[in-house]
Each structure stands twice: as C-alpha cells, then as structure tokens.
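PROTOCOL LOG
Step 1. Enter all chains and additional molecules of the complex.
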Amino acid sequence: MSALGELLDGAVRADAERLTGVAFATDRFALVRGRVARRRAARSAGVGGASVLGIGALAVGVTHLPFASPGLAGPGYAVVCTTVAAAAPTPSADSALSVLNVPSPSGSVIWSIAIGSQDPPEIVANIALDLTTHEVTGSIPDGNSYVYTSLTLTKNADGVYAARLPDGTPLTFEVKDENLVLKGSTLEPMGEPTVTCVTVDPAPTSSAVPSSSLEPSATPVAMSPTAEPTTVPGLAWSWDPDVPAGTPFQCDYHFPVGEFDSPGLTVSGHATTQSAVRQAFMDEYGDQPPTSDVADSQGLAYAGTLDLADPHILVSGPNQPLAQSGGRGVGATFVAVRDGVVVGVIVPPADGTQGIVLDHGVAGPFEANFWELDAMTACGWPGLENADIYFVGALAEKNGAFFYSWTKVSE
Amino acid sequence: MARWEPVLDEVMRERSPRLLAYARLLTGDDAEAQDVLQDALVRSFSRGRAFDNANVAEAYVRRAIPSVFIDRLRKRKAAERAHDKDVAIGGRDVLHADSDVVLDVRAALAALPPQERTCVVLRFYDDLTVPQIAAQMRLADGTVKRYLADASGKLAQMLGDDVDASSAAAAVPVISPAMKGERS
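Step 2. Run joint prediction.
Step 3. Record the structure below.
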C-alpha cells in the first residue's frame, strides 16, 4: 500500500472506531429490509416472467396497445404461471401511501402510488385511466428503471379496484371523476405469493427455427420455493441448482437452439458502442436522460430490436397510455449465456438507471439498448467469464402464455 | 424470516462502522455516507444473491458503495455540483489549521472533486488498477488516468511533506492537461 493508501487506511480505521453500527442498524434496518423485500418480490414477478411483460414509455412508463387482435397461433416457448397469495401478515414500518399525479399523455390520466415519506418517493405502482375507454390498468415499476410489469386489477360491484403488489401487500382504490382515491392509508403486507409454472416447449429439433407442425409437449415444472419455503416465490430462486429455470429471462434456462424466433415475434441485435447508443438517444431525446445516462465512450454496448408480425401491437408514438388488461404485451432483456445456459441476468438496481432502456422508438419497432455491463448479475459460480450476450424478446398473450425469441448479440 | 434478513442484520449491526467509514472517504460527510451505505445495501441484497455469510455480503456491499456514490453524483443538479465546488474551496482553508495527518488527508480528499476523489480511493485504498477503476466507474481508462493525475497533483500540493504524493503521481504516468485559468 502506498503512503497515501496508508493514510486513507488510517482515516477509515479512525472513522470506524468513531462510528457505531448499532445506531445505523436501529435507524435504518426496517427501511432497508422493506426496500429489499419489495424489490426482490417485484423482480421475482417481473424479471421472472410470472406476469404480463410491459415496456414503459420513457416518460410515464406505460405503453398503449390500442387494438385488440387475434392471438398468435403456432408453437413457441411458453410459460404459464399461476400465483397464489400467501397470508402471513407482517406489519411494516413507514408504509403510508400517497397518490402522486404524474405527467400524462392526452387521453389518459396516470397516477403513481408512493409508499413512505422518502424523497424522492418510492413508487410501488402506477395506475392509468384511459379516458376514451374508461379502462383502468396498473403497472409495477422497479426503481427508476424503464421496465414495468403489469399489475392485475380486479373491480368489485361497488367500483372498488383491488390489486396485490408483488410482495403480497394489498392495494385498493376507487377512480372517481378522474381522481384516484385510496381505500386505506397504509399497506399491510400479507406475505409473498407462491408461483407455480407450467412450461410448454416444442419438441426438440435440430432446426434453428422449429416448424409450425411441431406438437407442443406440456411439461409441468413445479417452481417450489426450496430456498425460502415460506416467503419467496420460486421464480426468484431460479439459479438454485435444485430449481429448474422456467423462462429465458432467468438464470439456468437452457436454450434448446442457438437462435429462435417465435411466430409473430422476430428479434435481431448486435454489439455496438456506448457512443453509438448515446447518439441514437441524442437523435431522439436530445441532451437529457436517457442520453445523459450513457457515456460518450467506446465502451461496449448492445442493441436489440423486436419486430412484431401484428402491426396493431406497435405503438403509434411515445408516452401512450397503457391498455394491458387484455393481457397482451411485449418485453425484452439481455442475458449472459454460456454453453447454451443462462449464467447472468440484468437485475434492476435499487435506484437509478440500470443501463438498459427498452423503448418503442417513434414509429418503428421496439428497441432495446444495454450499456451498463455491471448491471449484469452472475447467476453463480463461475460468473460471467466467457459468456455470450443474448437478446431475448417476449410476447405475452391474452391467455397468459408467453412466447420467446432470442438471438446472440455479442461478437 | 427470509434467508437474507439475518445476513442483512449482521452486516448492518457489525460491519457497518467500517462500511460507513469507507463511504465517508468518498462522501466526506457522515450523513451522506449513511445514505450511500443504505442504497448500497439495498442494491446488493435486492439482486437476489444468496449470501451465505456476512463476509461475502460485506464484500458485495463495499464494492457497490463507489457505484452508488457515483450514481448519486450523476443525479445531482448543477446547482448542487456548484455547491460542491464551494465546499472544496473552503476545505483547502481547513487543511493547514490541523496538524493531524489523518484529518489532513480527509480534508484533502474532501477538497477534490467527487470523481477524482473516487478514483483516488479506488486506486490507493482499494488498490484497484486503472482498468478496474474504469470498469467500476463506467469511464474510459484515459479519463481515469486524467482524474488520478489531477488528483495526485492536488494532493501533493495540499498535503505537502505529510505524504509522498509524488509516488501517487508516478503510479499514473500521464500528462495532465492544464487546468482552466492556468494556461499562460
């Protein structure tokens, strides 16, 4: 250690003797634990693919799928999940809810539901009202990331909407005259749901693109929460060697073929530079986030594109209101793959940008850019060494099935 | 109780003094160090890693601290960055009023711009190489070298004979561009 290093070490030692961990833990443990629990639960539901996937437009985090269209026929790699809520009330501190009005595109009203009194507020859900159809939909954000998961809402005879957040906490509200009124001031955790999935894969084939005549074979996969049997959905622990992975978004998923496009969903992608990503953002958004999130450097980045056969699923422009209650949606991610197995996934961090933007562009296909390679979390030993990067797209159908397409983007 | 909760509790109760002290090297401020550590804890434990013990978790959290600190910096408004400059200028006045070398090195660090400060801590406290620092801070290697060279020069000027800052400069053999206002 250099002379300067020794001085720095001395400063750390002196401060460590002065500071007390008990006070820090006493003051902040409940807050940290709550934030971690919510994000782990949200990640298990969203990244794991247990819910309909949605891509957020940059400003408001919701996407408009304006036209209903027939479901896409043909085989694909599909996962159907059912969620069963647990009932184990655990009081939580700092759980007061509030409603925030956020900028909304014309034809819609969007509210964010915040928990606690943090600054900036911690958003636990977004609710959107389509003023044309009067449809109310919900989505779950994760920090400030641009990835959103749909929130299933149920409406009773009195017009009260109810939903359960990924960590199991209930949310009830009414929408009256373009105002959202919470039915209750706090969230009371009810335990986390358990998730059971059934994977439907086409039969193995040597072809890179399975033919449409293949008969899918249903293979039940019990995603038992072996790691934490009472609280954690199985999808959160897909990298546990005892738990099979269910989707290409998850650790340990085994890609049956190197490249694959599901019917109706074509993906493409390539390696690029952060400067190129920055320039693309600059062209579209100017010198503001997400442009300012990307360094003007020759650092490695990746780009992917989702092309959908159904033109109606394409959005007409940015910041359109969400209409996901019908169940259709698209999502995408990048994963690290070694020997055909997912060995790294992108996990949205606690706050701030995660180095990935999924966007629908102005008038073209869905586009994804990923530049913060540190956001790729290794599934376990031996890490991300010698792994390729794959771009994975997902199309969620009304019946709850997911169709996946993937392609290698690293060189 | 989830499996990660006891590890989180142990890290917060038993490991946080040193983690806070490390964060304070970067922030120069106790309160902000607590905020940074809190976010680093959330970031580390939210990623679903199955920490078997507090040692592993502590290592992850410590590695997350500079990233969290840098992310927070990037989110700050221009006015807040301007405030940092004011603090830095004020910090230099404090330097020579205290003869304690530890206090001096803290004050000298605080006088550096945050990016340079982070590079110095990663280089001389964590013993990371320039490419490793560049990867962690998501900067180009050349940018890190420039930050280190600039910081080394300033530290040598501020700390004088208290520390062999020339060794720091020698470790980063780059030519630093002239600072604004210094060009003749």
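Step 4. Note key features.
Chain B touches chain A through 61 residues (CB under 8 Å).
Residues 146 and 176 of chain B are 6 Å apart (CA to CA).
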